[in-house]
Amino acid sequence: xxxxxxxxxxxxxxxxxxxATYFESLDEKIQKKLSISDIDxxxxxxxxxxxxxxxxxxxxxxLSLGVIDGRNxxxxxxxxxxxxxQQSVKPENEVFxxxxxxxxxxxxxxxxxKKIPNEIKxxxxxxxxxxxxxxxxxxxxxxxxxxxxxELEQNRLDILDRQNSKLIHDSIVKKRxxxxxxxxxxxxxxxxxxxxxxxxxxxxxxxxTTTIGSFPQTLDVRQARAKFKKGELDEASYEKFLKDKTIxxxxxxxxxxxxxxxxxxxxxxxxxxxxxxHLKGFTFSSSGWVQSYGSRCVKPPIIYGDISRSKAMTVxxxxxxxxxxxxxxxxxxxxxxxxxxxSFVRDDQSRxxxxxxxxxxxxxxxxxxxxxxxxxIQIDEPALREGLPLKKGKWKNYLDWSVGCFKIASxxxxxxxxxxxxxxxxxxxxxxESIAALDADVISIETSRSRMELLKTFxxxxxxxxxxxxxxxxxxxxxxxxxxxxNLLMKATKNVDSEKIWVNPDCGLKTxxxxxxxxxxxxxxxxxxxxxxxxx
Length: 536
Fold this sequence. Notes:
The chain has 536 residues and is of the alpha/beta class. Helix content is 41%, strand content 13%. The protein is built from 19 helices and 14 strands. The strands form four sheets. The protein has a six-stranded parallel β-sheet with strand order 5-10-11-12-13-14. Strands 1-2-3-4 form a four-stranded parallel β-sheet. A two-stranded antiparallel ribbon has the order 6-9. Strand 12, helix 16 and strand 13 form a beta-alpha-beta unit. Helix 14 runs parallel beside helix 15. It is globular.
């Protein structure tokens, strides 16, 4: 590290070089290498890297201290951060104060917000407000302005209000977490016994076909949803529209001859937002947009308090869909870790506890789906690997509780009910044991872009349950041929027992158009039928 940084400094000529580190504490060895290098300054994240405080007093270089959280939207306790600076920094130190990281992860301006309730809004700070928080700390430390006492006092009152708010705390939810034990997180029987029961009940063919969940959300779907939210479309008309779309999608799947079908999710705006809208402890913004990837932006839900489910969230549409067909309809849910990862999460308790609260809410939904005749339930966890801490030494703790949360959500069902999960676009080698520990009966994964190379991980580990390797990429309008999909499946049989292979797309079909969707699914089903013939 040191020689590289020295070369960087040398090449910069008269420019000063600041190395920014964030999202974790520096290892002592790396910190020392930074210190002896020729760079001019080091940025330390003091929010997610609490141990970085240990390096401040002895560091001779210019320091940038990340004292305002750039990853989340909660108002900083300014009085506490002032104490941290005063206790850590020597008078002779040359120090900048900063956000912990780039403000890319935070919405722009809370003043533009029109939807968040005022009581919750006073606890929040978007990018513009975070800059003002920095300015207040600077003024206090430098004694530049004696008229900021009112603002610091208001900050103190806002922090106190949040801590004591009745909106946040629910004793019933807290007590439920205390009941977690092995019986909460374990299926009644092992996979081997369950698989025998499932074969007898479902009588599915070899290489059964299904999809991941969503179907095209075309312009008419988006327009109807927008009109309904604006009050331009009444509830009865909107309900009829959704029923017609659901029935049409079921008929299309029947015509294509997909074995296990889905209802299409036309009532859902987003796989996390939809569930947040139905759970206590969540709120939503009108202007809290942040970049997801490329030019795609999202408006994450805000988890502000204890989470619980007051009524069923998906039962109505799953039950309606099942009543329209003799085929099996999967119930479709988003898993607790993905809901956690793709939300702004409260910072006044551990992420583990918040995830456990979500897991119990999903558990209640799973139980309701089962009681209403839904025999296969899919709990998607595409963000499981995304939540891994930066330091590998912390992985086990995270994986233990995240897998535990999935099992809280899924283990309530009888042996007769089949649990599916879905993960996409990730390297699974490092966490394959944890994926197996989920004990889902079937996992569907993205494999088409790697030409099934990802399945080598499952072969080496000897994954015990069933796998649905994706046979076409849903991010492209291209429709692979029957032969291409057949070849991919034949390749998959070299890594996975053919008796355990399902056939499905890489991911949901929400962003695709209907013509390419139908053509791709027709080819997918014919490829599966080809393999059934050739394999006997």
